Prior knowledge:
Residues 260-325 form the HTH luxR-type domain. The chain is an all-alpha fold and 332 residues long. The protein has 18 helices and no strands. Among the domains are: 1-104, Serine Threonine Protein Phosphatase 5, Tetratricopeptide repeat, CATH 1.25.40; 264-325, Arc Repressor Mutant, subunit A, CATH 1.10.10. The chain has helices at 6-14, 18-28, 31-35, 43-59, 63-72, 86-98, 102-119, 128-138, 142-159, 162-175, 179-193, 199-215, 219-236, 239-251, 269-279, 284-291, 295-309, 317-325. The longest helix has 18 residues, at 102-119. The protein is globular and about 55 Å long.
Amino acid sequence: MRTRSPRAGWRALDVGDLRGAISDFDQAGQIREDVGLGTEDARPVIAGIVGFAVIAHAEAGAFERAEALLADAGLDGELPEQMVFNPLLHARASAHLLARRVDKAVADFRELGRRHARWGLRRPSPPWRSSLAVALVARGERAEARELARAELELARVWATARSIARAERALALAANDPDETIAGLTSAEQRLADGPWRLDRARVRCELGAALRRVGERRAARELLARALDEAHACGAEVLATQATEELRASGARPRRRALSGHDALTPSERRVAELAGRGRTNREIAQELFVTMATVETHLSRTYRKLGVPGRAELAAALAERDGEPEPAT
Length: 332
């Protein structure tokens, strides 16, 4: 089995491979032993690792796990005013937004903006302006959202990367009052992301563009985009987005294809995470402690995994998972 590291997790998250990112962060998350989690000196070191792990789990719909990671690292409250905590603050706010805790998301995004202003930072990374804009749209505060998105779009054009521009275009489109502006902005963002490696960003924009087209009666075009978004969301392991795309497809009159009922693609991120730990020899109790879940949850995930993979029990898990990953079965 390949050696995993935070760097591998960051790369996987960047291209929308949430299953890979979660697996990498969990294995690299010998964080406690490696850097002495719990000591004040270690907090800046683990902030980046925890932040990216939090957003991966939140995108996968594992909100309790994301919260537990923050709490266990002592990063769920007020954070020191150091630049190293900026990505964590953005990730924490993004996780709140995915969980529909909009007020908490707005508070964290605003705090990140205050810190950027204090330090005179003029860059679209982390993209706090567009992220705050999307959160404000959820509260119906579109005027401020448009101002923030326009400001980030100007910065992104100087930054000159397709992804940063697309994120700002997406936020500005969602904040628009005119449906035609929304569709035009999301179309531009989708085209910028079309040939890049950012699968999750692309799937999200396609889902939102499909929803916008549905609302103006363009049902056929909407269904095509939404179906592609749903497929990409499933491929990424993005359960929150997959649910959104499924709901939009049903609203368009379509009947979304059922997810795979067996095989590796049928595993949820939580099931795969439990299975990988079990395949590496961890006991149910050890898995429950590491993932901050109950023993009953572990047992449920394992029983479902055995059925989906068609294996009789724990001893066959490592080989079954390695078969999908293209890795040799570990020697015993």
